[in-house]
From TrEMBL:
UniProt domain HTH gntR-type: residue ranges: 10-78
Keyword Cell wall biogenesis/degradation belongs to the record: no
UniProt-recorded name of the protein: Aminotransferase class I/II-fold pyridoxal phosphate-dependent enzyme
Domain of life, source organism: Bacteria
GO molecular function terms noted in the UniProt entry: DNA binding; DNA-binding transcription factor activity; pyridoxal phosphate binding; transaminase activity
Family listed: In the C-terminal section; belongs to the class-I pyridoxal-phosphate-dependent aminotransferase family.
UniProt keyword DNA-binding present: yes
Keywords: Aminotransferase, DNA-binding, Pyridoxal phosphate, Transcription, Transcription regulation, Transferase
Length: 446
């Protein structure tokens, strides 16, 4: 140990974890401080070694401590949580932001006055009637006919929907199956909620069958997945993979399946669902932020009736409803012919730009497949952090795959996530040349 550790007390895993948390709150344990080894702690407290292991595991799941293998367990450092969006890049060209193109987001000015309408008062329906008709038409074709009685709920974006769906269905320490690599917000939602993330590997067809089966065998009570344009990989479910995953889920009808179809209207791929005809707990979430704008915090969530009731109760103490003004603006925009034409151009733009840059990187000896979505998931034959550091010296800011990983196996990621759709031809030439040079010169081991 680095220094004397204040006395940890307790006879159960919960009591020991609470004792450590209290010591942290009183600053008797500080970020970076080492905790006693499991065997030592068990002997000091006179408890079974498994009890000490369970206590440290609870603390690690809550983010209070970090397990470092042979280096022991330490109080977690207070660090900023990775987020999507612009970074403090300074003079660097930011390729990690994951943002849509501003010029391909429809202008709100023309519809604002018409959308205002009369004031909405307490007690009125939470979904604007005209918006509900449009939303049902949008989502109904992708719900199995056998899933009759499904209901709509509105939330303040897809991340809000996922957080509320999990909280109405799970208890602390429940296991949640997440894609690995995974969307940043999903990682944070699960960890901050105190749930146990279970990594399900993702390949070019989406979640793997064996990975999902293993997560369910490990006790996963919820599954969060992206059917199209998976972030960060760009993978989309194929019909064959979706059918195989539905077969696995058929033996677990009460596991909550959340489908985050965030890229829907911009996607170049067909939608394939994990929700089978007999599945009992499910949600299909579609946000408008990628095509109407990130500031339009609105998502449509279709669910089975029981989940809809519980989700409505989770909304009632706080938000209660999503602004009818947002609903009317979204409805007006998506009924507008010019907006629909702009969205078609936007979807084509992202796909074409990613494909063009992928072809040029592949020709330069950096093979990459252009998936769906806003980003490229580039494999590199060297630790990604080393490549990213050397790219910074050449003026580029990128995200490494380490930020998106769930599996804690100590192996450095060998992927970069690049947002390239807004690069000029000159910038693409420079990026391809710099990437090729940096990867060629980088060491193959950490």
């Amino acid at each position: 140990m680095d220094k004397h550790v204040p006395a940890i007390t307790g006879g159960t895993a919960a009591e020991i974890a609470d004792s450590v948390r209290a010591l942290v709150e009183r600053d008797e344990l500080r970020p970076g401080d080492a905790l006693p080894p499991v065997r030592t702690l068990a002997e000091q407290l006179g408890v079974n070694r498994n009890t000490a292991v369970a206590a440290y595991r609870r603390l690690a799941r809550s983010g209070a401590v970090v397990a470092q293998g042979r280096a022991g367990t330490r109080v977690a450092e207070h660090s900023s949580v990775a987020q999507e969006g612009y970074a403090e890049a300074g003079p660097l060209r930011d390729l990690g932001n994951g943002n849509p193109a501003p010029e391909l987001i429809p202008a709100l000015g023309p519809v604002l006055e018409a959308a205002a309408g009369r004031p909405v008062l307490y007690g009125e329906p939470v979904i604007d009637p005209e918006f509900e008709v449009w939303a049902r038409d949008w989502i109904a074709p992708d719900i199995p006919e056998e899933q009759d009685g499904w209901r709509l709920t509105l939330t303040s974006g897809a991340v809000d929907a996922v957080e509320r769906l999990l909280s109405q269905a799970l208890m602390r320490d429940d296991a949640v199956a997440l894609e690995d690599p995974c969307f940043l917000s999903s990682i944070q939602t699960v960890r901050l909620g105190g749930y146990r993330p279970v990594a399900v590997p993702v390949d070019e067809e989406g979640m793997t069958v064996e990975g999902l089966r293993a997560a369910l065998d490990d006790g996963a009570r919820a599954v969060v997945h992206t059917p199209r344009a998976q972030n960060p990989t760009g993978a989309s479910l194929t019909a064959e993979r979706a059918a195989a995953l539905r077969e696995v889920l058929a033996d677990h009808p009460y596991v909550l399946v959340i489908e985050d179809d965030y890229f829907s209207l911009l996607s170049r791929r067909r939608f394939h669902s994990l929700i089978g005809p007999g599945h009992r707990r499910w949600a299909l979430v579609r946000s408008v932020s990628k095509f109407v704008g990130p500031d339009m915090c609105l998502a449509v969530t279709a669910t089975d009736p029981g989940t809809a009731d519980r989700l409505a109760m989770r909304l009632s103490p706080g938000t209660t409803w999503v602004s009818h003004l947002l609903q009317r603006i979204t409805h007006a925009l998506l009924h507008d012919e010019d907006t629909r034409e702009l969205l078609e151009r936007a979807g084509a733009h992202y796909a074409e730009r990613n494909l063009d840059v992928a072809r040029r990187l592949s020709a330069a000896g950096l093979p990459v497949t252009a998936g769906d979505g806003l980003n490229l998931w580039l494999p590199v034959a060297a630790p990604a952090r080393v490549v990213a550091e050397r790219l910074m010296r050449r003026g580029w800011l990128v995200r490494t795959g380490d930020e998106f990983r769930l599996a804690d196996d100590g192996v450095a990621s060998r992927h970069l996530r690049l947002t390239v759709h807004d690069l000029t031809a000159v910038e693409v030439d420079a990026l391809v040349a710099d990437l090729a040079a940096v990867v060629a010169a980088a060491p193959r081991t950490s």
